[in-house]
UniProtKB/TrEMBL annotation:
Protein name per UniProt: Ribonuclease BN, tRNA processing enzyme
InterPro entries attached to this UniProt entry: RibonucZ/Hydroxyglut_hydro
Organism: Candidatus Thermokryptus mobilis
Coiled coil: none
SUPFAM superfamilies in UniProt: Metallo-hydrolase/oxidoreductase
One MF annotation (Gene Ontology) recorded for this entry: 3'-tRNA processing endoribonuclease activity
Length: 258
C-alpha cells in the first residue's frame, strides 16, 4: 500500500501547503481521504494518473477537509476524465452539497463522468479484493451538538483504518489515519497491529501522542495537521531518544510505502 500526503496543513492556511488530503494506492487504484482546500493543486503537482482515483472519503465538512471538492471535480473534468467517481460524505450534508455546486457553475450536464455522492459507510467497505476501509466515529465535532437541531448538521466526525491483505493471503498491512480527533484515546480500539499511524496534531498534545504510540509499539508514526505556531522538533528529538520512535512530520508530496 502506498500513501501519498497531498495536504498536510492544519486548519490554518500556510504558504505552499494544501489542507488535509491523503491518497491510498494499491495496484492501479487510489482512494482519497479528505479533500481540503488546495488538494487539487497538490494532486496536479504529483505524477499521478488521475483515472486511478476511484473514491473520495470526507470525514466531516470542515473547510480544511472538504472545501477542495468543487475544484477537484473541475480539475478532473479539465483533465478529460471519463470514469465515474464516488464521493462519500456525511449523509445529512449530501443534499446541501448537491444544491451548492450549481452555484459554482458546476453542472452535472457538463461533465463526461458521473460524480455520485454517497453517505459515509457505517460498516467496513470493500475497496478492492484485498483492500478494505473502516470509518470509526470520533468526537471532534462534539462542540457543535447544540447547533445540530437548528441547522441539521452532522456532529460526528470519523477516522480511517485501511487494511490490505497481502498476496500470500495471510499478511496484512494496516494504515490508521486519525483525521480530526478529540483525544488519542479515540484510536485505542484500532491501533493494534497498525503499520503506519498518520495522526493529526491540531487538537491533541504531542506529548499525549508520544506516550500513546510508545505504549502500543507503533512501528511508524507521521504527524500531520500541525498548527504553524507549534514547534514540534524538540518533542520529536525527545520521542526518538527516549522511546526510539520512528516518527516524522508530514509534508505535501510525502510518500510512504508499507
Ligand atoms: Zn481539520
Amino acid at each position: 500500500m502506498k500513501i501519498t500526503i497531498f495536504g498536510s496543513a492544519s486548519g490554518i492556511p500556510e504558504k505552499g501547503k494544501a489542507h488535509s488530503c491523503v491518497g491510498v494506492e494499491v495496484g492501479e487504484k487510489m482512494f482519497l481521504l479528505e479533500i481540503g482546500e488546495g488538494a487539487s493543486s497538490s494532486i496536479a503537482g504529483d505524477d499521478l494518473d488521475i483515472e486511478k482515483i476511484e473514491k473520495v472519503f470526507i470525514s466531516h465538512t470542515h473547510a480544511d477537509h472538504f472545501i477542495g471538492l468543487p475544484r477537484f471535480l473541475q480539475y478532473l473534468k479539465w483533465r478529460g476524465r471519463k470514469k465515474d467517481i464516488e464521493i462519500y460524505l456525511p449523509e445529512k450534508h449530501i443534499d446541501a452539497v448537491e444544491k451548492f455546486l450549481p452555484f459554482l457553475y458546476i453542472f452535472r450536464e457538463r461533465f463526461e463522468f458521473e460524480y455520485k455522492f454517497l453517505p459515509l459507510p457505517k460498516d467496513e467497505l470493500i475497496l478492492t479484493e484485498n483492500l478494505k476501509i473502516k470509518l470509526f466515529p470520533t468526537s471532534h465535532l462534539k462542540k457543535y451538538r447544540k447547533y445540530s437541531d437548528i441547522y441539521g448538521v452532522e456532529t460526528t466526525s470519523y477516522g480511517y483504518l485501511v487494511e490490505e491483505v497481502l498476496n500470500d493471503g495471510i499478511g496484512v498491512k494496516r494504515f490508521l489515519f486519525s483525521s480530526d480527533i478529540d483525544s488519542v484515546g479515540e484510536l485505542k480500539n484500532f491501533i493494534e497491529g497498525v503499520d503506519l499511524l498518520l495522526i493529526e496534531c491540531a487538537h491533541i498534545g504531542i506529548e499525549d501522542i508520544i506516550e500513546f504510540v510508545s505504549e502500543y509499539n507503533v512501528p511508524k508514526v507521521i504527524l500531520t495537521h500541525i498548527s504553524p505556531d507549534r514547534d514540534v522538533n524538540f518533542m520529536l528529538e525527545y520521542a526518538r531518544a527516549k522511546f526510539d520512535l520512528n516518527i516524522e512530520v508530514a509534508f505535501d508530496g510525502m510518500k510512504i510505502e508499507i
